[in-house]
Amino acid sequence: MNKFGKIILLLNIFLLISCGGKQEEKKEQITIGKKNTSVQKESAKPKAATKTPASKRVDLESKGVGPVTSLELPAEIDQSMVAKGQDIFKKMCMACHKPNKRFIGPAPTGILKRRSPEWVMNMILNPSEMVEKDPLAKELLIEFNGSPMANQSLTEEDARAVLEYFRTL
Amino acid sequence: MKKLLNLFFYLIATALLVTSCANTDSKSERSGALNSSAAEKVYVAPGEHDEFYAFISGGFSGQLSVYGLPSGRLFKVIPVFSQDPEKAWGYNEETKPMLNTSHGFIPWDDAHHPDISQTAGEIDGRYVFINANNTPRIAKIDLSTFETTEIIELPNSAGNHSSSFVTENSEYVVAGTRFSVPVPQQDISIKEYKGNFKGALSFISVAPEDGRMDLEFQILMPGFNYDLSHPGRGKSHGWFFFTTYNTEEASTLMEVNSSQNDKDFIAAVNWKKAEEYIKAGKYRTVPANYAHNVYDEHTHTATSTMKKEVKILDPAECPGLVYFLPTPKSPHGCDVDPSGEYIVGNGKLSANLTVHSFTKMMSAIENNKIDGEAYGIPILKFEDVLAGIVEQPGLGPLHTEFDGKGNAYTTFFISSEVVKWKLDTWEVIDRKPTYYSVGHIMIPGGNSAKPFGKYALAMNKITKDRYLPTGPEVTQSAQLYDITGEKMELLLDFPTIGEPHYAAGCPADLIKPRSKKIFKLEENQHKYAAKSEADTKVVREGNEVHIYMTMIRSHFSPDNIEGIKVGDKVYFHVTNLEQDYDVPHGVSMIGANTSELLIMPGQTETFVWYPKQVGVWPFYCTDFCSALHQEMQGYVRVSPKDSDIALSWSLGED
Q1: Cis (ω within 30 of 0) for the bond into B20?
Q2: Three-state SS across B305-358?
Q3: Cβ of B555 under 8 Å from any chain A Cβ?
Q4: Is residue A64 left, alpha or beta, with left meaning phi > 0 and alpha meaning psi from -120 to 50?
Q5: What is the mean pLDDT of chain A?
Q6: Strand B648-650's sheet: what is its strand order?
Q7: I need a surface site. Which of A61, B199, B332, B457 has the fewest CB within 10 A?
């Protein structure tokens, strides 16, 4: 009898605690179920989000982590390499990247204004280590919903051609 | 009342203490210094690799299992003769032809004896061959992909048991029929067995460059049961040895009637001679009907071809082709030592083990010491070919393997033990119990000139009290022995799939470096492959709809499809665009009367779906592929048969 009472008491305490959490109703409202009319209002964004997202940030110093440690781009763009790179991009990358708009991953347009050529090459050739060790790549993974950049087993030569194609975007 | 209760508690507590004490006692007895070293010997630390692969037959599961030794860890079950919904084997359109036979599509078989391909008498780790016992077939598994890539059916055979053993340079995979049957098949009384039933020994060539199999010829033997076989090697290369039982040619109450003769035979077949007879045209070409199924790694698709004839050699008309070596009491295993000199006949109803000498056999043949004949096949004299006898080593000998150091290891089914004995002196060195009723034994490289004599793996039929009970059916198991010392040491028990008949073992280093990691997209020649998202489409041909779909972490393209109608036959041709190791995707469709597909990087597979109900029906990825795996899904809208909704497909908003 005594034991039973204790158990009941414990249960009650537990219930009390778990109820407590619910009492603070959130004031910000999430609206689901209204047919695609309302767009998120800018004003609704929390103040804390002042940091520029990784995809917009510029870092031309970092070379990333991977096989490519230094890469000098010649001034002239090699058009035959561009054609090859575009073909490879279509076959191996387009499933997740559109040239001009965000898709599963970011668009490569203007990438060389934001990243070093080495960084881009390493992201293509060594994505799993990049998202593990490179701070920018890590943030990008989170920014793009945790969708991992697939390693499409490109050769360094192929990746270089893709990079040349990126120079034209 | 309370006192009574207290007393009860005390009693229980005491009982618990006592039993726990007893447990510690028995444990300390078992886990002495020896046992802890046994644990060390089989311990493969997390992240480390085993030293050997063991390919253990899945028996009546029809498959081949891949274990690591010494850990006993199961890595993979390779589907061979039975449908496997996990891997869509025999369910997807690509692999259905692999299970085609002259009897139509067969979803199951009984897989028995794996054997690894050889070069110059040593195992080379390229292929494993395994036989289907029930509907006679030989399968080839490619050890770069661990997939079954070829299956050939055997005509004129039944109970394909003395198979599938390879010759020294993988010239042939050899298969002998256990049951003799009328050849060609005909409607006769079973009572007319004697003289009318025949046993076929099949020689399947293996092309050196790509391993392609072809049934070169069959030797049509008397109507005995051909139980097991092994190739000659070294000095006996060019010969093949088969055990026989039922030389009585009984057809009923076999357990009595086929155990009458004091001696049955080991048939010694000179296959080099057979090649000469074939070359000389001394064969008959007879009509046959058997399936030859080949899986193409580039089209990711199998084709099945029906073959219509086979070359037959009649040993009565081909002198020197076959000799019979009398061997006591229904010999089962037929094992040849690494030098090729000794042929062990494991007479399962005999008290002794019989070992024949190849050298003595050759000299008896040269000196024409013939003791009689059976259906035109000369019988040599027992004493003239006998090398030695292992006296009363145990009860019910079945199989023998060798360690390459002059020792042989024979399993004894009835007395449940492995017995180590010495070649040349025939003395018993050691015996260790098995738990229980051991069948085959395997030493990696055991069927070759160069065994790796470190471990022996015994495969048991019965385990009764060895594991936690699981209802009336309990697992079969394998037991690992350390055979590096004078005495064998039992190291490990582990459960197996199906009933393990034989296994083939191989140093991991022979296979590991060649193991394929992905299929290259650019080499994908599948008829319905979509090699990039630009290639995705949906095509209607009458009521057949072909969806060319791609998958990559973590979406399908297209993932919204409309314009499908009730009564359509919808083909999902799905290509995995990934080009990275260990990133398969799966796909399944609600209500599809088939299995999922499990598609490797760069591969295309197809399943068929018959939409029967109007509505919007989802499909999804079945193999957890990334953090967004749960989002990897799509919808198909199914409209009424007479609807005029146009076919459309999309991914994302544009």
Answers
A1: no
A2: EEEEEEEEECHHHCCCCEEEEEEECCEEEEEECCCCCEEEEEECCCCCEEEEEH
A3: yes
A4: left
A5: 83
A6: B597-599, B585-589, B615-620, B633-639, B560-565, B648-650
A7: A61
Residues of A within 8 A of B652 (CB-CB) are 103
What ranges do the domains of chain A cover? 52-167
Q: Considering only CB atoms, which chain B residues are within 8 Å of A92?
A: 521, 532, 577, 579
The answer to whether B580 contacts A146, with C-beta atoms less than 8 Å apart, is: no
- Three-state DSSP state, B608: strand
The two structure tokens encoding residue B41: 């010997």
Helix runs in chain A, H state only? 2-23, 79-88, 111-114, 117-125, 127-133, 135-143, 156-167
The residues of chain B that CATH labels 2.60.40.420 are 521-650
Give the β-pairing of B537-541 and B181-182. Answer: unpaired
Q: What kind and span of H or E run contains A28?
A: none
Residue pair B138/B155 in contact (Cβ under 8 Å)? The answer is no
Residues of chain A contacting residue B579, judged by C-beta atoms under 8 Å apart: 92, 150-154
B-chain residues near A90 (CB < 8 A)? 532, 534
User: In this structure, what token pair is assigned to residue B66?
Assistant: 């891949």
CB contact at 8 A, B83 and B89 = yes
Q: The tokens 């198991």 sit on which residue?
A: B477
- Residue B31 CB partners (closer than 8 Å, separation 6+): none
**pLDDT tens-place string over residues A73-119:** 999 999 999 999 999 999 999 999 999 999 999 999 999 999 999 99
Q: Do A148 and B627 touch (CB under 8 A)?
A: yes
CA angle B53, B56, B58 (to 5 degrees): 145
Any A CB within 8 A of B430 CB: no
Contacts of A96 in chain B (CB under 8 A): 552-553
| Cα separation, B585 vs B624, whole angstroms | 8
* Min Cα–Cα distance to chain A from B46, Å: 22
Integer Cα distance of A57 and A34 in angstroms:
34
Can you tell me the mean pLDDT for B309-318? 98
CATH architecture of A52-167: Orthogonal Bundle (1.10)
Asked whether the bond before A74 is cis by omega within 30 degrees of 0, the reply is no
Q: Does the beta carbon of B516 lie under 8 angstroms from any beta carbon of chain A?
A: no
Per-residue pLDDT tens over the stretch B354-376: 999 999 999 999 999 999 999 99
Which residue type, as a one-letter code, is found at position B45?
Answer: A
Q: pLDDT, tens digit, for every residue of B60-112?
A: 999 999 999 999 999 999 999 999 999 999 999 999 999 999 999 999 999 99
Cα–Cα dist B369/B24, whole Å: 66
**Residue B84 phi/psi, 5° resolution?**
-135, 105
pTM, entire model = 0.88
Flag if B531 and A91 touch (Cβ within 8 Å).
yes
Task: Return the amino acid letter for A117.
Answer: P
Q: Do A96 and B552 touch (CB under 8 A)?
A: yes
> What residues does CATH 2.130.10.10 cover in chain B?
83-223+283-317
Quote the CA–CA distance of B159 and B228 in Å, as a whole number. 11
What is B521-650's CATH number?
Answer: 2.60.40.420
Contact B552 A95 (CB under 8 A): yes
- Mutation target for B interface from A88, A92, A101, A128: give the one with most B CBs within 10 A: A92
Tell me the shortest Cα–Cα distance from B649 to chain A, in angstroms. Answer: 15
Residue B286 near residue B239, CB atoms below 8 Å: no
Identify all chain A residues contacting B532, using CB atoms and an 8 Å cutoff: 90-92, 94-95
Which CATH homologous superfamily contains domain B83-223+283-317? YVTN repeat-like/Quinoprotein amine dehydrogenase (2.130.10.10)
Give the SS3 label for residue A5: helix
